[in-house]
Each structure stands twice: as structure tokens, then as C-alpha cells.
Automatic annotation (TrEMBL):
EC assignment: 2.5.1.18
Catalytically driven reaction(s): RX + glutathione = an S-substituted glutathione + a halide anion + H(+)
Any GO molecular function: glutathione transferase activity
Lineage, broadest ranks: Eukaryota, Viridiplantae, Streptophyta, Embryophyta, Tracheophyta
Family statement drawn from the similarity comment of this UniProt entry: Belongs to the GST superfamily. Tau family.
Segments forming domain GST C-terminal: 117-248
Domain GST N-terminal: 32-111
GO terms under biological process: glutathione metabolic process; toxin catabolic process
Enzyme class: transferase
Keywords on record: Detoxification, Transferase
GO cellular component: cytoplasm
Name of a matching Pfam family: GST_C_2
Protein name (record): glutathione transferase
Amino acid sequence: MVMSNSSFRRRQGAKRKPISSFGLILPVMANSDVKLIGAWPSPFVMRPRIALNIKSVEYEFLEEKLGSKSQLLLESNPVHKKIPVLIHDGKPICESLVIVEYIDEVWSSGPSILPSDPYDRAIARFWAAYIDEKWFPAMRNITAAKEGESRKALIEQAGEGMVLLEDAFGKCSKGKGFFGGDQIGYLDIAFGSFLGWLRAIEKLNGVELLDETKTPGLLKWAQRFSSHPPVKNVLPETDKLVEFAKVLAKYKAAESTS
């Protein structure tokens, strides 16, 4: 969730790009037929944003506030009440990877995101599920864990996951620059959306999960992915995420004592 009080909706005649309270420049959006409810720090929100950029789809970004859920969000996702939610022609689509697949199917004239081969699609979905269900929870919990065996175990688990993903990259990329081959694909988006937080967690905890010794392929891939045009203006800077993480920790601490 973001701290800004503004929704960053495009106003007619606006000349400047909207800027969040953390100084992150957000793209000016258009086309009221496509809206995305989200928050700039969320890696899950970054997924549909990258997919929409790949397809060159203009959209309106509706920023959620820290600690609250808008009426539109609650109405659009009454089951989970979570971001992101894509609203296309008034119809809501929920869950980040479901949204990415929807974008790929609806705007099929743009570059393909999902692999064309059924087996490759299945493998990409398998690793995307692993990232969400196993790898990211371990990485996220490193910061919250106390010093000791628990924290050490989480660091080891996240590191082991990086080695597995290094191997997956070698097989999925088939010697090319991205998991998707010559261009960014489904698994690139699924994993790449966490790169900002990966670097922030490394900095906050004094650990190195992405390095030249154990994950040389992923290290080079991360550099290519982060600098790719559909991505580079979506991924927040590491220092901004570190700052946000500290604010969020204080907010949660205050919330737990209230």
C-alpha cells in the first residue's frame, strides 16, 4: 500500500506526470475502458502493469491508500478484497497472474506473453506458482524474523530457491536473454516483479541472494529485465522500497498496539 492521498487519476489537460509521496514518477494513463486498482510498492501490481506496457495498452491507475480499502476495490474483489484488480469495460478481473493471462489473450495482437507451446506454458505456470507459494514467502519473512536459527533458515531457504530458479532460467531461456526466450514472457514477469523487493530485502538484512557465484545467469537476466522499456519505469528504486518498508513496519507496530 502507498502513503499518498492522491489516486493519480489522469485529469483532462494535465501537463505533468503524477508523482507519489515517495517521489516515484507514475505514468500518465488514459483510456477509461481499462483501469488498474493497485499500489506502487506491490510486486503483484507490477505484474499487470508490465503486461499492459508490453501490449502498449493505455490504462488508468487507481492508487490505494495505506491501511484502507476503497469502495471500488471492495466491490470489484469482494472475495479476497486485495489488489491488483483490472477493470476492463466495467468488468473486474482479480489475481495478478490471472490478470496477466487475461491481458495476453485480450490484446493478442501485441507481443505474446505466455509461451505458445503447451509444455512450455505448463512449466512457466509451475515456476510462477513456486515463486508465489514457496520462494517469496521465505524471502519476505527474513526481515520479520528475529536473529537466530529461524532467520538463518529463512535466508537458506530463499537462497536455495534462487539456485533452483537459476537452473529453471537455464532451461526455460534455452540460452537466450529471458525466461521467455528473446523477449520478456510470463515467467519473467512473475519473477521479475519481485526484483525491487529482493534488492531491498538484501539491503535491509545485509544478505546477498542474487550473486555472480551462485546465480550468474539470474544476475545478468535481472539487469536486462530491469532496464527493459516496459519494466524500467514500473520497478521502484531500491532505496524507495527500503524507505517504504521502514514506514510499513512502524505502521504495523502501531496498529498491533492500538
